[in-house]
Amino acid sequence: MKKKLVAILVASCILAGCGSQNLGPLEDKTTKLRDENHKLKSDIQDLKIEIKKEKTNISALEKDKDNIKNAKNNKNKLNHIKASSEYYQNVTKAIDDYTNIEDDVSKNKKSEKIQSKLTDITNKLDSAYTTYKSKIDKDKMSDEDKKKSKNINKLNKELNSAMDDIRDGYNEKDKKKIQKGQATLSKVSINNN
């Protein structure tokens, strides 16, 4: 038993001596891994800061994109308002021109001067509508502007129908046709809703 105890003691001493030699490289490796771990944590923190910065940039770019879209919508709306306004001004001038000769038209004397003025008025209405159509872009219009454009289309048809009846009636000395056109013209309403 004594031999066994001595053998165990000797083996323990040998093993203890061998074990301490292996600890040096392990401690170096542990230190190296700890340093690498610290560097990786620092890199991760830098990446988190970079990601946060990029998210802020993305948010700002999205806001700019929305602002540009709103600016384009406002520009399209402004273009439609200008085109509509010009159309209504031109229609008003043409109707004023007709009002100035309405008494002569009602007399139905088939004067070439009045015939010419009626043709000019019809041409002004056609020109006003053509100009309006050339200045708008239906694809870029809002639903509200499309509704207004539809009202302008309807107004144009009613005005043309009335003026065609008046002009044709005058040219043909047809009092009923003139009166029909005048009645239609008096019922035409400008609905800008």
From TrEMBL:
Basic and acidic residues bias: start-end ranges: 138-147, 164-175
Region Disordered: list its residue ranges.
138-193
Where does the source fall among the domains of life?
A: Bacteria
Provide this UniProt record's keywords sorted from A to Z. Coiled coil, Lipoprotein
Q: State if Coiled coil is listed as a keyword.
A: yes
The biased composition feature labelled Polar residues covers: 181-193
Q: What is this protein called?
A: Putative lipoprotein
Keyword Hydrolase attributed: no
Q: Where in this chain does the entry annotate a coiled-coil region?
A: 30-81
